[in-house]
Every structure is written in structure tokens, then in C-alpha cells.
Amino acid sequence: MRPTDTLQSVPLRRPVRLTLVGLPLGARRRLAELGLRTGATVEVVHRTAGGGRVVAVAGSRIALDRETARGMQVLGEQEVPVV
């Protein structure tokens, strides 16, 4: 995956790590409360007809609209360096 890939472009059932949540502060805070924050491992489990995504994170499923999914940059799990 490229560093500029977003949740919108991730194939189903492929674990990825969030590298940047490029959304307004209020949206970032709410998503962080739900477990979607930089460094979190997520997996797209469903694509909606309108272009949204349902993602699995920390045992929960969260539905995201298309624009929110586009604002979240990711890297494939195998590409993330272990610190």
C-alpha cells in the first residue's frame, strides 16, 4: 500500500493501521472516543452502496461515510515498522 492510501481504498478484511486522521478536530475527537485514532489497527468489513465503510476496531464495528473514510490514511499491517 502507498502511504497515501485511505480507508476508502482498502480491500475487505485486510488489517491496516491508521497513520493520519485528516478530519476536523471535533470529528477526530469523536472517532478517537470510538477507537479510531492514529496507530489503531482496523479492518474494513463491509462496503456500503453509498461508498461508506463499516470497519472493525477493538472488537467494535463502526460505520463511516465516504468522506470520513477518505480522510483517514492507512498503511498495511506488514508495512508498519515496529518501534
From TrEMBL:
It comes from the Bacteria. It holds the Pfam family FeoA. The keyword Nucleus does not apply. InterPro entries: Fe-transptr_FeoA-like (IPR007167), FeoA_core_dom (IPR038157), Transcriptional_repressor_C (IPR008988). GO terms for molecular function: transition metal ion binding. Keywords: Iron. Residues 25-74 form the Ferrous iron transporter FeoA-like domain. This is Ferrous iron transport protein A. It comes from Arsenicicoccus cauae. The lineage of its organism: Bacteria, Bacillati, Actinomycetota, Actinomycetes, Micrococcales.
